[in-house]
């Protein structure tokens, strides 16, 4: 009963709040075809087809920037086998043999005149010494008369330390060869094996990954690359099979062998998203992911990339989550696995799309989700409805969360396709760390669905290894968060109203000085708690480090744990909240000599900047007593505020400011 009351109070508090614009999905379309991604310490490197292997980089797998072409001039050896080659296809990047290797192919469309080679670089980060690609030449080739095709490399090291390359298309399908790790070329005496065959039907774009001791072969089926007036003939789709061995024995989820045309379909055409395939599975820091392209019906069939989580079932089969749209703990309903459900458009919907006509007995939306932190959550369920056939007060959906179903009542909102901010209900639930599955089916009457957000109910602890993403962070083999200088870890959707106290401490191991800061909203956001680390921390046991108190927080916030000045990699255990420490600060006005100082607070009017004498908690009010901002630190920026009179409060001192 106590837990129910807490959930009820939180739901009531959140129901009246408006969330910032960046609460919602923001699709950043990035053009590309046959994409491949590799994760490195500071972000992601991407390579795609038909651009001289242009390297592209991102910190968050959403906002990309162009780098340099890895092959500005095509390697001449390719023209021996593909004299009419136009560009390089299907790059595949891996860290193997102490270097980064990017496998590529040159081919002629529709025939088997093809060659595959690889380039190498000591670094993937173009800002570091050692970055620069060197062509290592041919790995394998085919000619017109061959029954298989030397395109679309997929490289993976197996659990025994052997390196393999799958490749091929159409004809006799997908084949695999063992590589020599030291050279990157075919191992002496290696025998090629056929591992997927559709009897001449379309199969290509192989990708390999291992999970829980099994190997998974992803492929693309049927026809790609249809655009414009021919877009409707684009039947590309993503399929998968599983094997105990990397070099063969793949079957689909029904048990049908991939050598006999088997394959479980994971992605197919939906809405405006045609041909979602041509992808690669890759390892991220705390999850496995899949990058694919699709052809946008609303843009003439031009191709763009999507990055999805791989979500694993209890019996170790993959499903693909929604494309990453800027939020980790959210699900856009229209990107679920849809059965007898239509996708509609509205400028009022998150990302402009939503699920309508969930009207039939077999209508279903399945949402596979990776949740890095186990525990109590509220699901913020954004819907709308306008009427019922019998004048009832609302409708309902059945929501199944990891096999447990409940009927969720949806009061009338008075509109269709509008999704006003009040059109939400909150569903209390427990979620697992890792893979979770949410299914929505029709209940009473009708309701449209826009979006689900998963809100963490935090009371006294955030486990640091439950972070959503970050840079210069990793999980150790003991499942501990390790962070380096300049790194950060993201914890989305923290319900701050349930935090039991303003006191903060952090468990650390192997500390060597520096500062950890808890910030809100972004990696450069206001510091809400700061932790000075010991210069000689114990490497074998956790040490509790006391941090500065939180300001009074309210609503749902994203937390960022940032690291500055670390002397080495530091391990983080739990971030703990509790009784506030007495850390009141006397503000010393006499330590300032600049014009505008009063009571130890300086207002630098030309730069709209308030400076405190020491780092401390602060509040910024308007003259009606409404809190406009709060934080921890020395600097308070007023650039975004209009001209007027404001009040700064820090400790027991206040300062009235006229901007």
Descriptive report:
The chain is mostly beta strands. The chain is 3% helix and 49% strand. It is built from 2 helices and 46 strands. The strands form 9 sheets. Strands 21, 26, 29, 31, 32, 33, 34, 35, 36, 37, 38, 39 and 40 form a 13-stranded mixed beta sheet that branches. Strands 41, 42, 43, 44, 45 and 46 form a 6-stranded antiparallel beta sheet that branches. Strand 10 and strand 11 form a beta hairpin. It starts with a helix and ends with a strand. The relative contact order is 0.08. The N terminus is likely disordered.
Short description:
The chain is an all-beta fold and 659 residues long. A hairpin with a 4-residue loop joins β42 (601-604) and β43 (609-622). The protein starts with a helix and ends with a strand.
> What overall form do the CA principal axes indicate?
globular
What is the C-alpha radius of gyration, as a whole number of Å? 27 Å
What's the count of strands?
46
Number of helices: 2
β content, as a range? Answer: over 45%
Average of the residue pLDDT scores: 91
How would a crystallographer describe the biggest sheet?
13 strands, mixed
Helical amount: under 10%
What structural class should be given to the helix and strand makeup?
A: mainly beta
User: How many angstroms does the end-to-end distance come to?
Assistant: 50 Å
**Contiguous uncertain segments of 5+ residues:** 1-5, 583-598
What's the structural blueprint in terms of helices and strands?
Layout: H1 2-15, E1 36-40, E2 43-47, E3 54-58, E4 64-69, H2 78-81, E5 88-96, E6 99-107, E7 114-121, E8 134-142, E9 154-157, E10 163-168, E11 174-179, E12 193-196, E13 203-211, E14 214-221, E15 237-243, E16 264-267, E17 273-283, E18 288-296, E19 303-312, E20 318-323, E21 330-332, E22 337-339, E23 342-345, E24 353-356, E25 364-371, E26 375-384, E27 394-401, E28 404-411, E29 424-431, E30 434-442, E31 448-457, E32 461-463, E33 469-475, E34 481-495, E35 503-509, E36 515-520, E37 527-532, E38 543-547, E39 556-564, E40 570-578, E41 597-598, E42 601-604, E43 609-622, E44 627-637, E45 645-650, E46 653-658
Parallel strand pairs: 31-34
Antiparallel strand pairs: 1-2, 2-3, 3-4, 5-6, 6-7, 7-8, 9-10, 10-11, 11-12, 13-14, 14-15, 15-16, 17-18, 18-19, 19-20, 21-31, 22-25, 23-24, 25-30, 26-29, 26-31, 27-28, 27-30, 32-40, 33-34, 34-39, 34-40, 35-38, 35-40, 36-37, 36-39, 41-42, 42-43, 43-44, 43-45, 45-46
């Amino acid at each position: 009963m106590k837990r129910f009351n807490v959930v009820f109070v939180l739901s009531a508090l959140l129901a009246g709040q408006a969330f910032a614009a960046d609460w919602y999905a923001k699709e950043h379309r990035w053009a590309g075809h046959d994409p491949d991604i590799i994760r490195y310490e500071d972000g992601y490197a991407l390579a795609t087809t038909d651009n001289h292997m242009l390297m592209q980089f991102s910190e968050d797998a959403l906002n990309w920037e162009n780098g340099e072409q890895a092959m500005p001039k095509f390697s001449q050896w390719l023209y021996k086998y593909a004299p009419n080659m136009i560009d390089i296809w299907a790059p595949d990047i891996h860290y193997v043999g102490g270097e980064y290797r990017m496998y590529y192919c040159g081919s002629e469309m529709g025939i088997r005149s093809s060659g595959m080679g690889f380039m190498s670089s000591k670094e993937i980060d173009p800002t570091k010494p050692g970055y620069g690609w060197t062509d290592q030449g041919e790995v394998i080739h085919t000619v017109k008369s061959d029954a298989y095709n030397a395109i679309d490399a997929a490289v993976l090291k197996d659990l025994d330390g052997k390196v393999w390359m799958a490749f091929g298309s159409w004809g006799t399908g997908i084949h695999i060869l063992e590589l020599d790790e030291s050279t990157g070329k075919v191992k002496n005496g290696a025998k090629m094996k056929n591992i997927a065959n559709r009897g001449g039907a379309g199969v290509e774009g192989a990708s390999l990954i291992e999970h829980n001791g099994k190997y998974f072969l992803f492929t693309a089926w049927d026809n790609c690359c249809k655009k414009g007036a021919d877009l409707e003939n684009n039947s590309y789709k993503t399929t998968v099979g599983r094997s105990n061995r990397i070099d063969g024995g793949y079957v689909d989820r029904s048990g049908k062998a991939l050598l006999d045309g088997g394959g479980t379909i994971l992605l197919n055409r939906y809405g405006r998203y045609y041909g979602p395939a041509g992808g690669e599975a890759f390892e991220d820091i705390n999850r496995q992911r899949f990058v694919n392209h699709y052809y946008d019906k609303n843009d003439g069939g031009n191709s763009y990339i999507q990055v999805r989580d791989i979500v694993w079932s209890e019996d170790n089969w993959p499903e693909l989550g929604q494309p990453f749209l800027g939020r980790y703990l959210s699900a856009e309903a229209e990107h679920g696995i849809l059965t007898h459900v239509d996708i509609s458009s509205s400028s009022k919907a998150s990302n402009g799309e939503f699920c309508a006509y969930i009207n039939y007995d077999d209508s279903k939306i399945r949402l596979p989700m990776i949740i890095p932190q186990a525990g109590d959550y509220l699901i913020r369920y954004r819907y709308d409805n306008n009427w019922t056939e019998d004048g009832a007060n609302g409708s309902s959906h059945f929501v199944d969360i990891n096999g447990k179903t409940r009927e969720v009542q949806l009061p009338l909102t008075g509109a269709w396709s509008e999704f006003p901010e009040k059109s939400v209900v909150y569903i209390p639930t427990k979620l697992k760390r890792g893979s979770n599955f949410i299914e929505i089916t029709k209940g009473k009457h009708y309701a449209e669905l826009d979006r689900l957000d998963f809100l963490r109910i935090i009371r006294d602890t955030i486990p640091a290894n439950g972070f959503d993403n970050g840079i210069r962070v990793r999980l150790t083999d003991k499942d501990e968060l390790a962070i380096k200088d300049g790194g950060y870890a993201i914890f989305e959707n923290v319900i701050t109203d349930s935090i039991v106290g303003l006191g903060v401490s952090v468990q650390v191991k192997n500390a060597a000085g520096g500062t950890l800061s808890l910030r809100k909203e972004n990696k450069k956001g206001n510091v809400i708690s700061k932790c000075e680390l010991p210069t000689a921390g114990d490497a074998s046991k956790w040490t509790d480090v006391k941090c500065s108190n939180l300001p009074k927080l309210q609503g749902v916030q994203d937390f960022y744990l940032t690291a500055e000045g670390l002397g080495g990699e530091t391990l983080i255990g739990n971030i703990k909240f509790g009784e506030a420490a007495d850390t009141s600060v006397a503000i010393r006005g006499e330590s300032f000599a600049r014009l505008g100082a009063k009571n130890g607070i300086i207002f630098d009017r030309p730069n709209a900047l308030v400076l405190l004498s020491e780092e401390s908690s602060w509040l910024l009010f308007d003259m009606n007593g409404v809190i406009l901002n709060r934080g921890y630190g020395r600097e308070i920026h007023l650039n975004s505020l209009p001209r007027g009179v404001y009040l700064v409060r820090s400790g027991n001192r206040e300062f009235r400011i006229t901007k």
